[in-house]
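Hi L.,

You mentioned the student needs an example of a multi-chain input paired with its predicted structure. This one should do, with 954 residues in total across all chains.
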Amino acid sequence: MSQSLLLVSLQWVVHLATLLLLPPLIPGLINKVKAAMAGRQGPPVLQLYYDLAKLARKRAVFSRTTTWVFLAGPIGTVAAGLVAGLLVPFGQTGTPLSFEGDVILFAYLFGLARFLTVLSAMDTGSSFEGMGAAREVAFSALAEPALFLGFAALAKASSSLSLSTMLLGSGLGSGRIAGPLILVLVGWSIVFLAENARIPVDDPNTHLELTMIHEVMVLDHSGRPLALVLYGASVKLLVLGAMLMDPLLPRAPQGWQNWLIFYAGLGALAVAVGLVESMMARFRMTKVPQFLIAGILASAFAFLLLLV
Amino acid sequence: MRLYLLAVLLVASSGFPGLFLRRRGGEVAAVLMGLGALLGISAAIRVLGGGSVPTLALPAAPLATPGLLTLDAIAAFFAVPVFLLPACAAVYGLGYWDDHQENAHTLHLVLGLLAASLAFLVVSTHALPFLLGWEGMAIAAFILVMTEDRLPEARRAAWIYLVSTHTGTLALIGAFVVYFSASGQWLLAELPRGFAATTQGTVFFSLCLFGFGFKAGVMPLHLWLPPTHAAAPSHVSSVMSGVLIKMGILGLVRLLSWIPDPPFWWGAVLMMLGALSGLLGVAFALGQHDLKRLLAYHSIENIGIILLGLGLGTLGKSTGHPVLQVLGYAGALLHVLNHSLFKGLLFLAGGSVVHAVGTRDLEQMGGLGRRMPWTSGAFLVGSWAISGLPPLNGFVSEWFIYLGSFRALGYFRWPWSLVVLTALALIGALAVACFAKAYGAVFQGAPRTEAAAAAHESPPSMLAPMGLLAAACALIGLAPMVMAPALDRVVAALGVGLGLPPLAHLVSLPSLSILALALLVLAVLLWRWLRPEPAESTLPTWDCGYAVANTRMQYTASSFADGLVGGLRWVLWPRSHGGKVTGSFPIDRPFATQVPDPVLDRLADPCFRFLALGASLLRFLQSGQLHIYLLYVLLALLTLLIWMVA
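Structure written out for the whole complex:
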């Protein structure tokens, strides 16, 4: 009894530590992969940690048009991302919190983060940021159905409504589920790239072009608020990445091995994103909806396959 | 029951003293209304808490049936917003519509009468008082919409409302006649099994759906809703949107409680109508420039969400799935209450803005967040809740419906509930877009007009009701378990089968609260870490170094919504005028876009115009000369004579 309690609390500690400390590593890995593909040396893998430390010491600059809502975006992104991180299992290591229907809360927490980010962008009164905000809400309206149709397919396959069972359920390995699962993952990969503002939907590196979504919304943030924005984006990368990878990760006999598998999976995901970004260009703005609709169709077909 | 009737009486009479007082009529009305609300809500809470169900019978012979009025669980649940919102509106009206403004006394009087007829309607379990309450509500609302009767817009809106509501009432009278022929009584109680499957049952359902749907503003029948909500004074709009349209839902809920075995297709129809209203409601809201019209379209959207829940529950009822009944019905009912709270809040906050700026046009506002901090906070809470985002109340009710639809995926061979699921996901995303647009255009950035720059905060009498409603939204969001026992009682009245599981066994409400608290604690900690220096900033928005931007260059509400409106133009059919620039040095060009209502502007208006044209062709018959009329009489007699002989 006491040993299992110890294990559970240890698992909590590792989960929280991973959730809080690991995220800034992922953008670093992605950038390293991109640099390697381009034959450059690239910034250090820990660059985002250095940036965050630097920003935390800097004073923020606020525009005279902004109100407290301007700060709600960064705060909301981080808070919602971290709470969502409590609901998603990190590989086969078990979830700190899991209950019936947490999957909807999980999705809506990201909705909350988006709502607050958009409002904080609009708070500056700049048309630049307004454009980014308008695109964000428009594209997310297409990403949301893809996400939920994927949830529906997994809920049907696993007869469960809690994220951990849906993603790691025992039935997922069987041949009947394999086809739909692949389609769901295809749909979710599209959602993953769109939600995290990665190529081919958005380019995290551009700042002064009009064809961008997420970066333009945070143009006016500086100092600690900017640190939260960057940190929040990396938390989102981790949490949604975990959601995407979970069904693929095998189960190891020992608990600690599961953690190693998860970290390896995360590294593989970062490499995959880096490769996609190296090999693809960003889509023209008008193509992005078609890309997202492809995601909806993939998830919808996954569901259809489960019916037959 | 005495307590409840006393409350109704107090509310009904609240406006009368004002007629004879030279001053302070509004204050007296507000006090009476508040007192009535306290009594009424306490009576309702006693029933919802498990007290006995009081009923009333009159000694007079034709009405001597026990159960003329019954304060059962359904009535008590609807009675809470019915008392709460008019009381909030009455207090708010003190600042918003003071005694010197036009028709102020009428407004106080009729607002009380409206609240009283609503409260009366809620407890009516007999066809006669039901129709009386229904008519009282319709006429009182008509007078309230006419408050600014010097404006042609208000007169037109009130007229459209009157025609619509009476068309609906006509259908209801028909429905009650069918009910009588089926059950042999006017008392509204459970109908025999098997009735719903007959042709008569189908007719009954269709008439009810039409009559109640008209009041609720279900999508093809919503035509009266946007103009009315826009033209009425804002606190009246808050009552109409918060509780009046819910009477349509009350009717449908009552209908479902009379039928022990609804056919499967009833649930499917409710679900389809819900998806239609929800999606089109939010889509048309995106295209609006008028703050109050935008909110009105969101009422249509939320009625859609409620219907999705009712439809899901009805699927469960007809196929005998208790879990589905509980989740669908509880979600729908909680959303009724939630929508009353946050839509009432939004209309009050919107009214506060309209009051300060003097226009409802979103493009003429901006920057009010700095000038009206409390109002902007209230509007933000309302937007947050209506978009269904955690940790506020809108999320909880949508969560129940989501859970029900996910569960239903495993129950049926065909994934009916996929409609609910995708519709809810899309509605949620579009509602976020629409409220980001509304909040951004009104409260954020820099003021676009001088009126907006000169705006200042509303008086405490207007802010207090908003605070109350916002607190209620937060309470239900953070501690949804307080609602569970009441919801269980109402669902038990609605559903069928003894083994309905309690809500608390189906959903983990404490987990939701814990996570909501975690979210709040994290947010507070981060806020403390960020807290900006007290020095007032004098710097402009950086905007990539483009420092000479003027306020008219901000992203407007229309430009914000343009991407989505363009993507949805196959449904919305937006119109735009002007805007073409030619030559190297173009002169000023006006440009306007609008999204007309599909039913009112594109269907009903041309049809009625055509009818009016046809009628005017017949006008020559009415020449006004006596001898011509005598000729008509003679001709009629002759025709009759020939007909009889032949």
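You could point out the following to them. The two ends of chain B are 64 Å apart (CA to CA). Chain B has 27 helices and four strands.

Best wishes,
N.
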